[in-house]
């Protein structure tokens, strides 16, 4: 007990002496030891200093410590040891190394899958994702076998499953994607996996399973805290869109109104206006429009990018950021907002007031008081276009004329539309005037240049028209209307190779445009290259397979090449889609007659009779088919019916005489008498025509001899000329009657696909005929960007 010490009896501190050590080994305080530092200075006092015993032993101790650290020889770079030994190679046969290598392969496959998806190779992306899943399962089994299951990489498992579900969804394999997402969501070891219910809801939305989409959106919303405000807003916006698809506008309005209160944005504001429009609530439409135009865009003012002349360094910075990605994003955001505002105004203007004009005026006033002042003029032009759609042309013209004193951009757009309107009304003088006005306001407006070229084209000044189309292309190389019109101008001028070059360039821009492909086929036909023409028409029917006129054109080309079977195929297809084309009907009827199938030809000529009942030749062809097929009784009845309708037709009477003679009928004498009478009347008519022609010629000679005699004989000769012309215009008794002869029409203006009134509009011929040119669309797209 004498060695037991109680705390507090003798020692004040229980841990006293713990930090005590021999001061000889205190190397940290040598810099502050005055004696030691003096001993190191060999020149101190110019004589050996007097060293005390304590200083001497300290120096000895330090020397011993240094020698222990540095070794027997002083070699600070370790050069005496030789080269470093080689690194030990890893043993890849160990289980841990195999697991690490497999993990790397899984990560690489996930990365390759994502890269393939970005490149658009969805099938390869899915295959890589499946391969990653297989290797990840192999990895899990290896860990189980090595007893390291506790060290499973959950992040890797999550990445594999998530990528696989995404690739299933991208390939429209929705059941597989939902099953994979369900595996992730049900695994409690994955944190925040509940958010993936948004992806599942998106898939249900694509499947149009709207109730389940709503359910999963709400489940995801419940699992996302209020700290993630932006994500909650986006999910609520999705819920509102689903309600619109379901027609539940009241529920959609509740979602959108909440968003506009918490975090307003352009898309939600526009959707809210759509919902109010659907339920017909005028006042709330107005309020929603006012909210829409005051939604903050969060972009910088454009004046920030205007350089100042005072600071050259600042100008350099502004020049550098003027077209950077941030500024481009700001411009895109502003353009999107303007698009939504313009669309909303056009939508609600006719609904919020008694008339659409009053509605547009209200929208214009609201816009003028907002940050979108420049849209007010665009809305006025939209108002004019609405007048046009309602056939109120005078109001449209008056509205557009109001812009003649406005700023340059709006003035040019209004004048362009006015030029187009007058062009449609064939008032080419006014169209030319307003085209000049539009060019004066903005010489770089391609639409104005095209309208100017169009007016010159219709007046026959094709060379000058082509110059304006070229200038439009120089101002806007992507202006397809100018390139199209330039090709038509070259075609009219006979510069077929240059026209072909224009349409080939246009085809490279508009790959599936039926009008361009038709023009190419037409040019190759004119260039005597029917094979190329057929190839382009084949491409054309792949785009518009039901265009009857294109099919008929193919039949015509094959017929010209001597391929009757292919010609019959395309003519027959053309007849199926449009059974009123007389040329097609005539060809098919003639084809069956040539192939000795007269019975089948009858149905085509009977249809032609229905289409043109005043033309006798179709009825004669029907009777002829009956006669050739041996049905003489039916042929006789048909000829008799024709004779009742056209009693002066000599061809019908000749066949009646022949049939009655062959069949031994008593009516043969009656028809023979009628035939002689008709032939005699025809002979008298021809004599009268000849006499009238002689009188008119004699009158012209007498008129040239003296003015008096010419004046006295001008009346009868003029009457004779009119009479002879009138008689010449009448058809012969054996010719079909037509109101006007197509020979009197300039062939350069004929529609290559047939008369417009005899066939429906097709995709290959909406506005274009052989020499028609593309005018500017009348609409908002005429406004400069």
UniProtKB/TrEMBL annotation:
The keyword Cytoplasm applies. The keyword DNA-binding does not apply. It comes from the Eukaryota. It is found in: Cell projection, Cilium, Flagellum; Cytoplasm, Cytoskeleton, Cilium basal body; Cytoplasm, Cytoskeleton, Microtubule organizing center, Centrosome, Centriole. Keywords: Cell projection, Cilium, Cilium biogenesis/degradation, Cytoplasm, Cytoskeleton, Flagellum, Repeat, TPR repeat. InterPro entries: TPR-like_helical_dom_sf, TPR_rpt. GO terms for cellular component: centriole; centrosome; ciliary basal body; ciliary base; ciliary tip; cytosol; intraciliary transport particle B; motile cilium. Positively regulates primary cilium biogenesis. Also involved in autophagy since it is required for trafficking of ATG16L and the expansion of the autophagic compartment. This is Intraflagellar transport protein 88 homolog. It comes from Paramormyrops kingsleyae.
């Amino acid at each position: 007990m004498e060695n037991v010490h109680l705390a507090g009896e003798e020692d004040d501190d229980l841990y006293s002496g713990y930090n005590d050590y021999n001061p000889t080994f205190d190397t940290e305080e040598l810099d502050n030891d005055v004696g030691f530092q003096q001993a190191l200075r060999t020149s101190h006092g110019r004589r050996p200093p007097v060293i005390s015993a304590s200083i001497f032993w300290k120096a000895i101790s330090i020397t011993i410590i240094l020698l222990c650290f540095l070794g027997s020889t002083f070699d600070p770079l370790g050069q005496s040891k030789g080269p470093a030994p080689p690194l030990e190679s890893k043993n890849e046969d160990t289980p841990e190394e195999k697991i690490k290598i497999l993990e790397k392969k899984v990560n690489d496959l996930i990365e390759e899958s994502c890269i393939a998806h970005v490149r658009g190779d969805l099938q390869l992306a899915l295959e890589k994702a499946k391969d990653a899943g297989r290797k990840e399962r192999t990895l899990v089994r290896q860990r189980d076998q090595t007893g390291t299951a506790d060290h499973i990489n959950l992040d890797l498992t999550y990445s594999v499953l998530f990528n696989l579900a995404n690739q299933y969804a991208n390939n429209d394999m929705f059941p597989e994607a939902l099953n994979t997402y369900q595996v992730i969501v049900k695994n409690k070891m994955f944190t925040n996996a509940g958010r993936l219910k948004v992806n599942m809801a998106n898939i249900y939305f694509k499947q149009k399973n709207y109730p389940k989409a709503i359910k999963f959106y709400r489940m995801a919303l419940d699992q996302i805290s209020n700290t993630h405000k932006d994500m909650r807003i986006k999910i609520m916006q999705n819920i509102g869109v689903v309600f619109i698809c379901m027609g539940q506008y009241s529920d959609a309005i509740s979602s959108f109104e909440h968003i506009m209160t918490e975090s307003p944005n352009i898309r939600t504001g526009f959707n809210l206006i759509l919902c109010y429009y659907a339920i017909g609530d005028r006042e709330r439409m107005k309020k929603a429009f006012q909210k829409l135009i005051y939604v903050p865009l969060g972009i910088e003012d454009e004046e920030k990018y205007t350089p100042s002349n005072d600071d050259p360094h600042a100008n350099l910075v502004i020049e550098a950021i003027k077209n950077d990605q941030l500024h481009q994003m700001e411009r895109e955001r502003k353009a999107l907002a303007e698009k939504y505002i313009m669309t909303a105004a056009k939508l609600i203007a006719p609904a919020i007031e008694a008339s659409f004009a009053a509605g547009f005026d209200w929208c214009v006033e609201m816009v003028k008081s907002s940050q979108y002042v420049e849209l007010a003029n665009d809305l006025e032009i939209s108002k004019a276009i609405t007048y046009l759609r309602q056939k109120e042309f005078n109001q449209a013209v008056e509205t557009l004329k109001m812009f003649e004193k406005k700023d340059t951009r709006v003035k040019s757009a209004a004048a362009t539309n006015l030029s187009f309107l007058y062009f449609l009304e064939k008032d080419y003088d006014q169209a030319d005037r307003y085209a000049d006005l539009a060019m004066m306001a903005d010489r770089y407006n391609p639409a104005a240049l095209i309208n100017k070229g169009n007016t010159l084209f219709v007046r026959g000044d094709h060379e000058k028209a082509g110059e304006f189309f070229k200038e439009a292309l120089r101002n806007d190389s992507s202006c397809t209307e100018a390139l199209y019109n330039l090709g038509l101008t070259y075609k009219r001028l006979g510069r077929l190779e240059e026209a072909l070059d224009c349409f080939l360039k246009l085809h490279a821009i508009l790959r599936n445009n039926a009008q361009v492909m038709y023009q190419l086929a037409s040019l190759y036909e004119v260039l005597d290259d029917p094979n190329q023409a057929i190839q382009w028409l084949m491409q054309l029917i792949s785009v518009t397979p039901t265009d009857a006129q294109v099919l008929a054109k193919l039949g015509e080309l094959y017929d010209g090449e001597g391929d009757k079977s292919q010609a019959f195929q395309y003519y027959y297809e053309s007849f199926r889609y449009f059974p009123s084309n007389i040329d097609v009907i005539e060809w098919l009827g003639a084809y069956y007659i040539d192939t000795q199938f007269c019975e089948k030809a009858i149905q085509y000529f009977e249809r032609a009779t229905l289409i043109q009942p005043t033309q006798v030749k179709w009825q004669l062809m029907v009777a002829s088919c009956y006669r050739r097929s041996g049905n003489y009784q039916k042929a006789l009845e048909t000829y008799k019916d024709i004779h009742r309708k056209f009693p002066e037709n000599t061809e019908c009477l000749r066949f009646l005489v022949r049939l009655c003679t062959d069949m031994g009928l008593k009516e043969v004498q009656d028809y023979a008498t009628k035939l002689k009478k008709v032939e005699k009347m025809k002979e008298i008519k021809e004599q009268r025509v000849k006499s009238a022609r002689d009188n008119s010629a004699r009158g012209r000679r007498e008129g040239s001899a003296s003015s008096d005699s010419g004046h006295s004989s001008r009346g009868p000769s003029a009457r004779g000329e009119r009479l002879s012309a009138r008689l010449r215009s009448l058809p012969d008794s054996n010719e079909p009657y037509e109101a006007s002869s197509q020979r009197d029409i300039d062939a350069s203006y004929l529609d290559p696909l047939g008369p417009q009134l005899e066939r429906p509009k097709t995709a290959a011929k909406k506005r274009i005929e052989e020499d028609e040119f593309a005018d500017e669309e009348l609409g908002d797209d005429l406004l400069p960007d």
